[in-house]
């Protein structure tokens, strides 16, 4: 559900794993291009899509008889989309979130929005997250991800459906950690993009990445995540891929901010959604509710609001230790 870059890429992953796939495209012309030319030039240019992947703008036709429904719409439009077509999802289908964001008004993770909006059992909801840059995966470069659910059976079914010759899907039961890993690393990626745009070097970026991992790990664990998840594919792996790659939308948005563009200008120039920009404020509200210090994310927020010069962003503002303390 969603024919943007990640939705189209993951549909290809599933089709290349031998599944029959329907891809819902909001625009008729996108669906026609996919069916007629085997391409989606606006979002995955140069990639030939498999024949067992068909597209349609007819939501009812796409969802009819679906066994697994993978949702890849912008995070802030998820609730509206589910309100429009959620009732068409077969009652026994597994719902899979491919999104990495926090709902701005409620602070809810995407799986929580799905649970609330559809009333589906938690056991039928799965989150897929990891170091997944769509352009590289669409080009069939080897990659891996994680399927996470409270139900072992649902996670296994999604992992098996998503694994092919170039993409491996592992599984775990830590939905909170897997989901927050994908959400929070976007914020650190924006910070690293900012310092890259300013012109700072590898020392600064490495400091922000490592201190950023500590920061987002504190947050995730406070909300119930398992610490080990944050140093796995859904945490550290995703952070590395998103923070350094020019293919990352969040890194690109940060880079423009670092070069002096305002948030309004960045949003106008971005052709696709950078979820990290809209997640900063609700994440900081969640951090405040638990008394969690997130100085790097706070600095990103200050840059977004124009209260801080990007050149003043620092790896860390406190004097806490890094590593074990020995008396």
UniProtKB/TrEMBL annotation:
<feature type="domain" description="Glycerol-3-phosphate dehydrogenase NAD-dependent N-terminal">
    <location>
        <begin position="1"/>
        <end position="153"/>
    </location>
</feature>
<keyword id="KW-0520">NAD</keyword>
<dbReference type="InterPro" id="IPR036291">
    <property type="entry name" value="NAD(P)-bd_dom_sf"/>
</dbReference>
<comment type="similarity">
    <text>Belongs to the NAD-dependent glycerol-3-phosphate dehydrogenase family.</text>
</comment>
<dbReference type="GO" id="GO:0051287">
    <property type="term" value="F:NAD binding"/>
</dbReference>
<dbReference type="InterPro" id="IPR006168">
    <property type="entry name" value="G3P_DH_NAD-dep"/>
</dbReference>
<dbReference type="Pfam" id="PF01210">
    <property type="entry name" value="NAD_Gly3P_dh_N"/>
</dbReference>
<dbReference type="GO" id="GO:0046168">
    <property type="term" value="P:glycerol-3-phosphate catabolic process"/>
</dbReference>
<feature type="domain" description="Glycerol-3-phosphate dehydrogenase NAD-dependent C-terminal">
    <location>
        <begin position="174"/>
        <end position="313"/>
    </location>
</feature>
<dbReference type="GO" id="GO:0005975">
    <property type="term" value="P:carbohydrate metabolic process"/>
</dbReference>
<dbReference type="InterPro" id="IPR006109">
    <property type="entry name" value="G3P_DH_NAD-dep_C"/>
</dbReference>
<dbReference type="Pfam" id="PF07479">
    <property type="entry name" value="NAD_Gly3P_dh_C"/>
</dbReference>
<dbReference type="GO" id="GO:0047952">
    <property type="term" value="F:glycerol-3-phosphate dehydrogenase [NAD(P)+] activity"/>
</dbReference>
<dbReference type="InterPro" id="IPR013328">
    <property type="entry name" value="6PGD_dom2"/>
</dbReference>
<dbReference type="InterPro" id="IPR008927">
    <property type="entry name" value="6-PGluconate_DH-like_C_sf"/>
</dbReference>
<keyword id="KW-0560">Oxidoreductase</keyword>
<dbReference type="GO" id="GO:0005829">
    <property type="term" value="C:cytosol"/>
</dbReference>
<dbReference type="InterPro" id="IPR011128">
    <property type="entry name" value="G3P_DH_NAD-dep_N"/>
</dbReference>
<protein>
    <submittedName>
        <fullName>Unannotated protein</fullName>
    </submittedName>
</protein>
């Amino acid at each position: 559900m969603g024919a943007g870059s990640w939705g189209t890429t993951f549909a290809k992953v599933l089709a290349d794993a031998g599944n029959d796939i329907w891809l819902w495209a909001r625009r008729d012309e996108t669906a026609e291009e996919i069916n007629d030319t085997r391409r989606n030039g606006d979002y995955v240019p140069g990639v030939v899509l498999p024949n067992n992947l068909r597209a349609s703008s007819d939501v009812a036709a796409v969802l009819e008889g679906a066994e697994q429904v993978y949702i890849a719409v912008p995070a802030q439009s998820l609730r509206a989309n589910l309100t429009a077509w959620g009732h068409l999802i077969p009652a026994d289908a597994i719902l899979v979130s491919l999104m990495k964001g926090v709902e701005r008004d409620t602070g809810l993770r995407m799986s929580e929005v799905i649970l609330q909006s559809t009333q589906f059992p938690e056991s039928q909801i799965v989150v897929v997250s990891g170091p997944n840059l769509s352009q590289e995966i669409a080009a069939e470069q080897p990659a891996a991800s994680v399927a996470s659910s409270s139900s072992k059976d649902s996670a296994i079914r999604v992992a098996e459906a998503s694994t092919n010759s170039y993409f491996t899907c592992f599984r775990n039961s830590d939905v909170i950690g897997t989901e927050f890993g994908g959400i929070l690393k976007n914020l650190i990626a924006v910070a690293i993009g900012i310092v890259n745009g300013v012109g700072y070097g590898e020392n600064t970026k490495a400091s922000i990445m490592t201190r950023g991992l500590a920061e987002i790990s504190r947050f995730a664990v406070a909300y119930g995540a398992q610490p080990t998840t944050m140093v796995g594919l859904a945490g550290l792996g995703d952070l590395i891929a998103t923070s350094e790659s020019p293919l990352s939308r969040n890194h690109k948005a940060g880079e423009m901010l670092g070069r002096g563009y305002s948030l309004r200008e960045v949003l106008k120039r971005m052709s696709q959604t950078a979820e990290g920009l809209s997640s900063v404020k609700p994440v900081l509200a969640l951090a405040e509710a638990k008394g969690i210090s997130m100085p790097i994310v706070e600095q990103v927020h200050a840059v977004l609001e124009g209260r801080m010069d990007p050149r003043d962003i620092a790896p860390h503002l406190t004097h806490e230790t890094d590593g074990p303390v020995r008396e």
